[in-house]
Amino acid sequence: MFKHTIETLDNGLQLLRIGLPGAVSVTTLVFSNTGSRYEKPNEYGIAHFFEHMVFKGTPTYPDPQLLASAIDGIGADFNAFTSREYTGYYIKAASEHLELSLDVLSDMLLRPLLKQDDLERERGVIIEEMNMYKDNPMHHVANLFESMLWDGSGLSHDIIGTQETVKGVNRADFVSFLSRWYGHGNMLVVLAGDADLVMSEKSRTAVEKAFAKPPEHERSQGKQSPDGLQSDGFLSQKKLLVVERPTEQAHLVMGWRGLRRGSEKRHALSMLSVILGGSMSSRLFTEVREKRGLCYYVNTDTEYYRETGIFGASAGVETKRVEEAIDVITAEFVDLASGKRSVTAEELARAKSHVEGRMALSFEDSRSVAQFYGMRQLLQDTIETPEEVLRQIQAVSIADVQALAAELVREGELRLGVIGPFEEKNFARFVS
Asked: What is the pTM of this model?
């Protein structure tokens, strides 16, 4: 479908290029091999905080307005994101602005000013962001649920950190974090778009030039190994989380241990997830919402990490019917896993078509392509092309899906989180 190349430049920076025939734009996406799970306890939230700070100015663009206007002036998309295992920064712009995109991004990551007054202002912004998330029951219970699952590991704390750690982090902490995680060997530059430009020597030279700038602070050499990775499975024995709050609607999240990132069974899990709750024709949507009117939304959730994962569901439910909803949702998982309601050939075919269709739509966008290829290279150290993914999806059988469901949906292993006007005793039976 797309031609791509991957190479390591002389300075240790990895460069991944994907040419999209007919595209007139290029997405420049720079990944750092770090996220919230690799933070020290006294710096929880610093990966996300740092992502904010690099937008506050560089020697070339010394204030946020100049930085923003350089990109706004060419009509480009410009943003960043922080996860538990990686951080990304991107600009999507017309092809002729590739050099400017590279100049801005390299300046941000190699030479951020990290001014004290900017740090103090952004500290307040992030604390307000925390408050906003806490006011969102769906988001709040999902974060606390993961904290319960992974208690004792770096996965347990919220990406945004805590008020205490955000208030306590200082400029020296940022410099230390930058030095460890933003060396050339720990970053991946992805170019996706205009095939003639992206696959040319011109684009390679432009990346080399942009990232040849001397960094503002000393950087670690080579790719950094994340510390403290745990063995597969839930780390905590706790199975139930209830957040008592006078909400008009109950929000629940539930699940079992899933798969690690890159697992050979991941495509079977993708099919299982779609069949159960990945579309408006899925079992959960049909049974829980359409037939019974139990929820406002219901869907399956899958999360993959380097060595573990989650597979389950989330729903927004009328408070008076939340226990009924949990019973019905759980039954859909158990009935499929036990073979009581086995996967049908029609369901599997529809799930494959659904996934293939969503992939086709996403590949019309250079940013989606950049992220698809880049995340695989960054986190799995291998390129899995769309053609390979599609072949593997087509190879998934009913037996594969059934066997995986039986493996994951294990009796006595359900974890449950609920937010609403409840007490723990209301839900103890579900996890006993």
From this structure: 0.94
Across-strand partners of 18? 4, 192
105 with 30: CB under 8 angstroms? yes
Q: Are 309 and 260 in contact (CB under 8 A)?
A: yes
Q: List the domain boundaries for the chain.
A: 3-210, 240-431
Architecture category of domain 240-431 in CATH: 2-Layer Sandwich (3.30)
Domains 3-210 and 240-431 share a fold: yes
249-298: pLDDT as tens digits: 999 999 999 999 999 999 999 999 999 999 999 999 999 999 999 998 99
Q: Quickly list DSSP for 283-351.
A: HHIIIIIIIT--EEEEEEEEEE-SS-EEEEEEEEEEGGGHHHHHHHHHHHHHHHHHTTTPPPHHHHHHH
Q: Which residues contact 423 (CB under 8 A, 6 or more apart)?
A: 242, 244
Q: In what order do the strands lie in the sheet with 77-82?
A: 3-8, 14-20, 187-194, 25-32, 87-94, 77-82
Looking at the domain 3-210, which fold is it? Cytochrome Bc1 Complex; Chain A, domain 1 (3.30.830)
